[in-house]
Specification:
Radius of gyration: 13 Å
Number of domains: 1
CATH architecture: 2-Layer Sandwich
Number of helices: 2
Largest sheet: 5 strands, antiparallel
Shape: globular
CATH class: Alpha Beta
CATH superfamily: HIT-like
Strand order of the largest sheet: 1-2-3-5-4
Structural class: alpha+beta
Strand content: 25-35%
């Protein structure tokens, strides 16, 4: 897989696919999922390509930056919905090979 095949790099971070940003820092963007599976479904991604949580190039500073945004988004989701989930996938469970976290709540959409 190349970075060009990575949806987050090729589409979101390049600006080719418009997203509804929820939070953004110099290193991280959080946005409403483009094809939500839940009533509230937000994706948090680092702005530079990191394949997954297991990527050896992921440093502590970037991981901490990502987790701060995940935490802030999760707080907002819980405040709004009363509950929430935070998830990242690895290996064959990971459809997009760019580190990303899902923060979601509510019922599964049809």
């Amino acid at each position: 897989m190349t970075i060009e095949d990575d949806f987050y790099c090729a589409e979101v971070l390049s600006g080719r696919t418009a997203v509804r940003t929820v939070q953004e820092t110099a290193d991280v963007i959080a946005f409403r999922h483009t094809r939500p599976l839940f009533e509230t479904h937000i994706v948090v991604v680092p702005k530079r390509h990191i394949a997954s949580l297991l990527d050896p190039t992921l440093n502590d500073d970037l991981l901490l930056s990502v987790l701060h945004v995940v935490q802030a988004v999760a707080r907002d989701v819980v405040a709004e919905r009363g509950a929430g989930r935070v998830q990242t996938n690895l290996g064959s469970y990971q459809d997009s090979k760019h580190l990303h976290w899902h923060v979601y709540a509510g019922g599964r959409l049809p």
